[in-house]
Amino acid sequence: MRYKDYYAALGVSREATADEIKRAYRKLARKYHPDVSKEPDAEARFKDVAEAYEALKDPERRAAYDQVGQRWAGSRPDQPPPGWDAGFEFSGGEFAEDAGDFSEFFETLFGRHARGGARAAPSRAHGQDHHAKVQIDVEDAYRGATREFVLQMPTLGDDGRVALRERRIELRIPRGIRAGQLLRLAGQGGPGRHGGAAGDLYLEVDFAPHGRFRVNGRDVLFDLPLAPWEAALGAKVQVPTPDGEVELAVPPGSRAGRRLRLKGRGLPGQPPGDLYALLTIALPAAEDAAGRAAYEAFARAFGGFDARPGFKGGSA
User: Fold this and answer.
1) How far apart are CA 184 and CA 81, in angstroms?
2) CA distances from 267 to 62, 144, 174, 241, 276 (A)
């Protein structure tokens, strides 16, 4: 994921007015339109300009994008900070099936609904549906939980400026939920008019970065360090899971990179996912004479072992 500087794409400052942004877009769109432009990279530049305008022309999206820029400050452009795209509440209609040719950055931040024209107009009385992305802990998907989240909603003030207004919501997280699923909070979207019902709030669930576990669909993976003798001789070790510790049998002769499966220990479901331990070898440091002597004895015992087969005599 790479951060995209939409202001730079349009050649405007971050303080540019809506009219300045529109004028910059029209000028660049004419210059790079593939049907008329002679520039060698016209099509790619035209897409960049169109995406930048789509993000900045909408006051809600622009306010959220500016906040993302602050979150990303200090990080590399290609290394997003944790939770950079979560917690923004947008008004809008149904989620579109296809957001077109927008970048991964755009679609991750604004959602698939963000394609122009995808915001369905509400009826005269019914309130707009809202949506947001929230991050949960993987442990909550194992057990289910009730959590409080703070959402930031871009709101137009009396002075014509858009600011982020916070609100707190309580969310019941069902057991076995997966990344990308939508949870609907009825009546927590935009207010209705003339006595009409309020819209709904749709929350897209993602997993927060975890210090140990990685989620892939319903499967969960983690790195399991082993001592050299545990890998060589086999062992029974206590390993953590998001639902408590279990005993794992390590077969003799296990190598780094091997995956051991704990069937059915992944995310709950029908069927449940699996939990995978990715083996790594942790080498003790030879910090004293006894440690060095132990490694020297080890080297003598396995003197015929070749750690780099195929390296000798040039490339294999």
Assistant:
1) 27
2) 36, 11, 12, 11, 12
Residues 108 and 169 in one domain: yes
pLDDT tens, 129-178? 888 999 999 999 999 999 999 998 877 777 667 778 889 999 999 999 99
Sheet bearing 129-136, strands edge to edge: 89-92, 129-136, 201-207, 182-185
pTM: 0.73
Nearby residues of 70 by Cβ (< 8 Å), 6 or more positions away? none
Q: Look up the CATH number of the domain holding residue 10.
A: 1.10.287.110
Please count the structural domains in the chain. Answer: 3
Instruction: Determine the structural domain holding residue 143 and report its residue range.
Output: 76-114+126-209
Decide: residue 125, CB within 10 A, 0-12 exposed, 13-18 middle, 19+ buried.
exposed
Q: What is the pLDDT of residues 208-266, one digit of tens each?
A: 999 999 999 999 999 999 999 999 999 999 998 999 999 999 999 999 999 999 999 99
Scored b (16 or more CB within 10 A) or e, 70-91 reads: ebeeeeeeeebeeebbbbbbbb
Please give the Cα distance from 12 to 52 (Å, whole number). 11
- Identify any residues that bridge with 293 across adjacent strands, giving them in sequence order: none
Yes or no: say if 94 and 191 are a contact pair by the CB < 8 Å rule: no
Task: Confirm whether 205 is domain-assigned.
Answer: yes
Q: List Cβ neighbours of 165 (8 Å cut-off, separation of 6 or more).
A: 152, 153, 154, 155
